[in-house]
Design a protein that fits this description.
The radius of gyration is 22 Å and the shape is globular. A hairpin with a 5-residue loop joins strand 1 and strand 2. 32% of the residues lie in helices and 24% in strands. The protein has an eight-stranded parallel sheet with strand order 9-8-7-6-5-4-11-10. The chain has eleven helices and 20 strands. With 425 residues, it is an alpha/beta fold.
Length: 425
């Protein structure tokens, strides 16, 4: 079966060759791979079981974490999957670090020419190391704060130095750094000078229901908030968001287990978090933590399902954003205006231009059902839209488009006259 799959993939991906991938970043922050705009659908887990890796490829993932071993890259590339290599803190260079520069040259020589190699990743959540060093080595809060800021600034300087060295060695492959959602804007901005792509991980579904009021699933909309925070931190850089692929109850070292099953994101919640990141500007989503869950678990099946949907919508997700930014009006019960000044979450919308036609992706980041109205669509008057999942329809009139959307709902609105999008990888 694997032989047949590889043969099929070879026909689907005719650009496979022995030459290195051509990778660049478009002015609108979309990754361009071998001349093709590419929305990233990534997986941190690199399954040792070939059958599971085949399943990952069939689901439409296009990027998987990988060691720097060329045989490991070959294993991915045989399935049409690109690999990213985590090189940790190797770009944290001191002045005159000839040994460190040689290590980067060795890595580039090993991976850089492989057609399935796409991206370097550097230290994950590197600022937490600065926190821990300050906490362990200082006594008072003031001392810890001062030590943390000094450590973060010094680390940023080392990372920028290593970034410049790596770009001279390998100017083709981007460098990506992932942060924690709680890292400050200022310090991420300083560290981001040492990367081409930035992002953050956020896993908002809590491990167990809370009592007496269950708020354990109320933080889903903050995926979008953190995406916007990262985009504001590095406005010219792509943002890739790392999403929840496990339950916090699976992390034995972080949470005390209760005598009740840990809870996981539902399929609907997993879908919402992906599209929430997308609407807020993410140019890729990646899943962490799936190594903790059995491959017959529902969350694994759900992630594969959502990855397949994203891959099938690749032409939409990688399309240019519409220049039209609508004003969004929301009403609860269909008629009561909902307008909370300063709220970071709400109904969000992003237009995409596919083959000259404007599509809309709309998400509801709140735990209430709403009717939303997109205003300012005068150029689209008379266009009828179809929601691709529910079949709901609405026509733009007076520059406005209105539809009802459930809590944590997602709408993908296709012009009725437009053909469906299909996977383009």
């Amino acid at each position: 079966m694997r032989v047949i799959l590889c043969a099929v993939l070879a026909m689907i991906f005719p650009f496979q060759s022995a030459t290195a991938a051509e990778v660049s970043i478009a002015p609108d922050r979309m990754l361009v791979v071998n001349g093709q705009r590419t929305f990233i659908i990534g997986l941190y887990e690199n399954p040792g079981d070939d059958a599971v890796l085949d399943e990952v490829a069939r689901a439409g993932f296009n990027l998987v974490q990988c060691s720097s071993d060329r045989a490991a890259l070959d294993r991915l590339w045989q399935r049409g999957l690109y690999g990213w290599v985590n090189i940790g803190g190797r770009t944290e260079l001191e002045e005159g670090d000839a040994e460190g520069i040689q290590a980067l040259k060795d890595l580039a020589a090993k991976c850089g020419s492989h057609p399935g190699f796409l991206v370097w990743e550097i230290s994950d959540e590197s600022l937490w190391g600065c926190y821990l060093n300050a906490y362990r080595n200082q006594n008072t809060l003031v001392e810890m704060a001062n030590a943390y800021h000094a450590s973060a600034a010094a680390q940023a300087a080392r990372m920028v130095r290593g970034y410049r060295a790596m770009k001279e060695i390998d100017p083709v492959h981007p460098i990506w750094e992932n942060y924690a959602a709680g890292n400050s804007h200022e310090q991420v901005a300083a560290h981001a000078q040492g990367a081409d792509i930035i992002g953050a991980d956020i896993y908002p579904v809590m491990p167990y229901p809370t009592r007496p009021v269950d708020v354990s699933r109320r933080g889903l909309g903050y995926v979008g908030v953190v995406t916007t925070k990262m985009q504001n931190t590095g406005p010219e850089k792509p943002v890739w968001m790392v999403l929840q692929g496990m339950s916090w109850g699976d992390t034995h070292d972080l949470f005390t287990h209760k005598p009740e099953p840990a809870q996981y994101p539902t399929c609907e919640e997993t879908r919402f978090m992906a599209y929430d990141a997308i609407v807020r500007g993410a140019r890729g989503v990646l899943y962490w933590g799936t190594y903790l869950v059995p491959k017959d678990a529902q969350i694994w099946k759900d992630i594969l399902k959502i990855a397949r949907e994203l891959a099938d919508n690749q032409a939409l997700l990688s399309a240019p954003d519409s220049p039209v930014v609508p004003a969004i009006e929301t009403r609860i019960f269909g008629f009561v205006l909902w307008d909370i000044k300063g709220s970071p979450i709400g109904v969000q919308a992003l237009g995409k231009v596919v083959d000259g036609q404007t599509w809309w992706i709309v998400v509801n980041e709140l735990f209430l059902d709403f009717t939303y109205t997109l205003r300012g669509l005068d150029r689209l008057n008379g266009v009828t839209y179809v929601e691709t999942t529910t079949g709901q329809t609405a026509t733009v009139g007076g520059g406005a488009l209105s539809l009802a959307i459930p809590k944590y709902g997602v709408h993908v609105l296709k012009p009725a006259a437009a053909p469906g999008v299909s996977e383009t990888r």
